[in-house]
Write a structure and sequence with these properties.
Layout: H1 2-18, H2 20-23, E1 37-38, E2 45-46, E3 53-58, H3 59-65, H4 70-74, E4 80-84, E5 90-94, E6 97-99, E7 111-114, E8 117-118, E9 132-139, H5 143-146, E10 153-159, E11 167-175, E12 179-191, E13 195-206, E14 223-237, E15 240-251, E16 259-260, E17 292-307, E18 312-329, E19 339-359, E20 364-385, H6 387-394, E21 432-454, E22 459-480, E23 501-519, E24 524-535, E25 538-541, E26 550-553, E27 556-569, E28 574-586, E29 589-593, E30 599-603, E31 607-621, E32 624-637, E33 656-668, E34 672-683, E35 686-687, E36 697-698, E37 701-712, E38 716-723, E39 731-735, E40 745-748, E41 753-761
Parallel strand pairs: 7-10
Antiparallel strand pairs: 1-2, 3-9, 4-5, 5-6, 7-8, 9-10, 11-12, 11-41, 12-13, 13-14, 14-15, 15-17, 16-40, 17-18, 18-19, 19-20, 20-21, 21-22, 22-23, 23-24, 24-27, 25-26, 27-28, 28-31, 29-30, 31-32, 32-33, 33-34, 34-37, 35-36, 37-38, 38-41, 39-40
Length: 762
């Protein structure tokens, strides 16, 4: 580990240590264009002064690059990946570690926040990125900064707040696949210097990009989202401010195209994920809902900040949030009436944090606080299948009870049932219905403290602790809604006796961080940190053997080491950052397919990750700004006896990832300015499953995007864009639920999108 850190850090620091000579001739009054302020350490700081690997994407860059979703932002942040099968089913990945479980009793690994309120629960974590100040991505364990869910990092979405000067903006656009885009905000005072408002909203609609050959279904992978936010700012005095923020978002896209390569769709005969798909929905569960998603997310946040004195401030963050989602999908990926699954998920939470910050301008500053978190959730997974099709197509996978030979039954087509091994069960139901329900409840209380000491004028040391205690309950219910299946003798989910079963436990733990920053020069800072992160213990029941009760998976622990440099060079025109890291994971919580073909949590042993990241933002001139990033991450399971994935690469984690973008000022026509924003993002091969199969992977690929913007002096603006300019074919996921039945499915990435928008600022 020491050799790795030494060699990579030498490369990381070479440019930043040598570069100050380039900046010596810059005048002190020259504009530092790359200065970015972040609040990741619970106080406003220059990004260069934070001894943590943080990437910040501000509102200007979000607009210029057309970044509307987490998955868009992630392409420009090294070490950060986001996979969105649908708004209901995302996977967040930081430095090789994925957080995507939809089960209500399993904690996320990555903390997602919206104005300091956790939105980490998977089915409610995707929010539209509109009318923002910035998005901050902190990499590495952040126990004292982001709390119990930040095993491997945290993401904070910071929304724009009301202002006491009247302003606004409205945008409308159209594009291919019948895209409709509306966006805007308005803000201003209600009572001068005391009460202000802000209202913002966005609507995005686009037809699906995978054609459905089934006339009963819409084209798949569409977009249908509307979001609105209303907020008030109340400043009864110069030292006291409250912000009340209410958000509502609704998503109702068409079904996700889980496409099989095992069975060719009729009539196209193509198994390529981006070619037309023939999926199927049938059965009577959930009121006969078609394939697709219905999801709504509601939240109310109250922020309070009181500057008690010149050295002490108090902060309060109160949050209430709830989500409801219903998604129906075809997990086998072809048109025959085989398997149809649904997911009816809901969650409700309340959180409260109080924090006191101290900064008297001396050598010591920091904060101390406490928080309370209360959450309840449920995931109801209804399942329906045609017993005749299951016996015919999956007879070799499911082991049915004894049955008479197929040739002893009149009217049976031997060709159709040859995959059943020569047997068929009678009578077979055209529709079998069952459901699997897991529920969870958590009450957590935490106390935390973090302090920074200026040992010298150039050396700072930081340390933090967080103590967590949590009461957790996990429940399981399996129901056969129209009797046992003749194929399995029960169901695909084995039914526990006595209805719902549950178990409650209390857990506690201590996490910490230590960091150092050394100001090598006035423009170059070196940093090092060590942190311990924790994913709480999991109370889990195996659906394959629920009578055995619940098992407890040990807490997942990560020890993380990192060194790096941050610099602001050439009079502030060049921001250059680089770091190297090494992580050790214990009790890595993963999943595997059990004997019944069901996904269940397991302890997969240990894992390690080592890597290097670099970012640059360079204003070469008034006419050209270059933004670049590169990330290397070697994340593997340890190859130890009994490890189910020993030596394998962690899923959703490419070894290499890079991005390059430019903001090019083309001309000033006297009535406005014309600019060009091209970008290119690339990643190496990625596996979608911990088993590291080439079938369930995506080879390296790159995407080219292009924006052209005309900003007029009268406040109007016109923009034209093309995403995936070269029409690259790629997949964003493979395997999925169908993989458990031996029929993996594949989801196509987005094709070429183009459109135009007009904007008016006032």
């Amino acid at each position: 580990m020491k050799n790795f850190l030494l060699s990579t850090t030498t490369l990381a620091l070479a440019a930043t240590i040598a570069a100050p000579a380039l900046a010596q001739d810059a005048g002190e009054d020259e504009l530092r264009q790359t200065t970015v302020t972040v609040t990741v350490q619970k106080r406003a700081e220059n990004l260069r002064d934070v001894p943590v690997a943080v990437s910040a994407v501000d509102s200007e860059l979000l607009d210029d690059l057309g970044l509307d979703e987490f998955s868009d932002v992630a392409r420009f942040v090294p070490g950060f990946e986001v996979q969105e099968q649908s708004p209901n089913n995302p996977g967040f990945v930081i430095r090789g570690i994925t957080s995507d479980s939809g089960e209500s009793n399993i904690e996320p690994r990555i903390a997602i926040f919206q104005d300091g309120v956790s939105i980490s629960r998977s089915r409610g974590s995707v929010v539209e990125l509109f009318d923002l100040e910035r998005v901050e991505v902190a990499k590495g364990p952040q126990p004292t900064l982001f709390g119990r869910g930040a095993l491997i990092g945290g993401v904070n979405v910071i929304q724009a707040k009301p202002e006491f000067e009247f302003s606004g903006q409205a945008t409308a656009g159209i594009g291919n696949y019948d895209e409709v885009y509306l966006d805007g905000f308005v803000t201003g005072p209600i009572i001068e210097d005391t009460l202000a408002f802000r209202i913002a909203g966005r609507l995005r609609e686009r037809d699906g990009y995978v054609e459905s050959v089934n006339p009963a279904e819409e084209d798949f992978n569409s977009q249908d989202m509307s979001a609105v936010r209303a907020s008030l700012a109340f400043t009864p005095s110069a030292d006291l401010r409250f912000d009340l923020i209410a958000n509502y978002q609704e998503d109702s896209p068409s079904g996700t195209s889980f496409k099989s390569k095992a069975f060719l769709p009729s009539p196209t005969g193509s198994s390529e994920p981006w070619d037309p798909a023939n999926l199927n929905t049938f059965g009577n569960f959930l009121g006969g809902k078609p394939l697709g998603l219905e999801r709504d997310v509601t939240s109310v946040t109250l922020l309070g900040d009181w500057q008690v004195s010149d050295s002490i401030s108090l902060s309060s963050i109160t949050g209430y949030r709830e989500f409801d989602s219903l998604e129906v999908f075809d997990p086998d990926g072809f048109g025959l009436e085989l398997l149809i699954f649904g997911e009816d998920a809901s969650g409700e939470q309340f959180s409260q944090e109080f924090r006191t910050n101290y900064d008297a301008g001396g050598r010591i500053r920091g904060f101390i606080g406490a928080s309370y978190f209360d959450e309840t959730g449920e995931q109801n997974v209804p399942l329906t299948f045609d017993e005749r099709a299951v016996q015919a197509l999956l007879g070799g996978f499911l082991t049915p009870p004894l049955a008479p030979p197929v040739d002893a039954l009149p009217g049976i087509n031997l060709t159709v049932f040859q995959q059943s091994g020569g047997t068929v069960l009678v009578p077979l139901k055209p529709i079998h219905n069952e459901r699997f329900v897991n529920d969870g409840e958590t009450q957590a209380f935490e106390v935390f403290a973090d302090a920074t000491v200026d040992v010298t004028d150039r050396l700072q040391l930081t340390g933090g602790l967080r103590y967590t205690t949590e009461d957790k309950e996990s429940g399981l219910l399996v129901e056969l809604l129209n009797g046992p299946s003749a194929v399995t003798g029960a169901g695909l989910f084995v039914q526990p006796s006595g209805g719902r079963i549950s178990r409650s436990e209390t857990f506690d733990d201590l996490t910490w961080r230590a960091a150092a920053k050394f100001e090598l020069t006035d423009t170059v800072n070196l940093f090092a940190n060590y942190a311990r992160g924790r994913r709480p213990k999991v109370i889990t029941a195996s659906a394959s053997a629920p009578a055995a009760g619940f098992a407890i998976l040990d807490a997942e622990i990560v020890d993380a080491y990192e060194v790096g440099a941050k610099s602001s060079l050439l009079g502030g025109d060049l921001s250059l950052e680089a770091s190297a890291f090494y992580y050790e994971y214990n009790n890595f919580q993963s999943t595997q397919i059990n004997a019944q073909g069901l996904i269940e949590p397991i302890n997969a042993g240990d894992a390690t990750a080592e890597g290097f990241e670099a970012q640059a933002n360079w204003y070469l001139s008034d006419a050209l700004n270059i933004i670049a990033s590169y990330g290397y991450n070697h994340a593997r399971f340890d190859d130890e006896p009994g490890a189910p994935f020993g030596g394998n690469k962690l899923r959703l984690s490419p070894d290499h990832k890079a991005s390059l973008a430019a903001r090019i000022f083309l001309m000033d026509a006297g009535f406005g300015t014309l600019s060009l924003v091209p970008s290119y993002t690339w990643q190496s091969q990625v596996y979608f499953d911990n088993t590291e199969r080439d079938l369930i992977s995506q080879d390296s690929y790159g995407l080219v995007n292009l924006n052209v913007q005309l900003d007029l002096e009268n406040g109007f603006g016109i923009e034209a864009y093309v995403n995936n300019l070269t029409g690259e074919d790629y997949i964003i996921d493979a395997g999925n639920t169908g993989d458990g039945f031996g029929i993996p499915t594949f989801i196509a990435g987005t094709p070429t999108f183009y459109g135009a928008r007009i904007r008016k600022s006032f």
